[in-house]
Amino acid sequence: MCHDPPLFQITHGYSKDKRPDLKQLVLAMLCGDANVPILGKLEDGNASDKAINHRLLSNVPGEGEDHYSAEQILRTYKEQNGIEKNFGFLEDDQIVNALFLKRPERIEALGLILLASLLIWRLIELVMRTQLHARQATVPGWDNKPTARPSA
Fold first, then answer.
1. HEC profile for 17-41?
2. What is the DSSP letter of 148?
3. Which of 76, 78, 83, 94 is the most buried (most CB within 10 A)?
4. What is the pTM of this model?
5. Measured in whole angstroms, how far is the alpha carbon of residue 114 from the centre of its chain?
6. Do strands 146-147 and 139-140 pair parallel, antiparallel, or not at all (unpaired)?
């Protein structure tokens, strides 16, 4: 029976929350227009942002139907901070402590589910905003204030 090496290592790494006692992994993703994910993968918990970014950006199609120009890649990369806010709930101790996955296959499956969830979320948001723009309409947002750019 042949066992392939894991695609990523759950290991100690730099903790932005000052929790060096916890092991971690990185869900890396690159989003295109309207923050819709175009690439995503799980990375080692101690992988550097620079290395992760290089790997993600190296996999962006440069030609063909789904290609991105250098200008589009740079603009897309600079707009990534909004995506990190969407997954902020995963840094909540109550959420993380409730996740008990040890096997890399299950963790990878969870990463894929999270990526697919964000894709669906962003597509719903894009359709809502496009329709509101086309109709020059608004919907009630936070505190019942009208908005033409609702969040899904």
1. CCCCCCCECEEEEEECHHHCEEEEE
2. S
3. 76
4. 0.57
5. 8
6. antiparallel
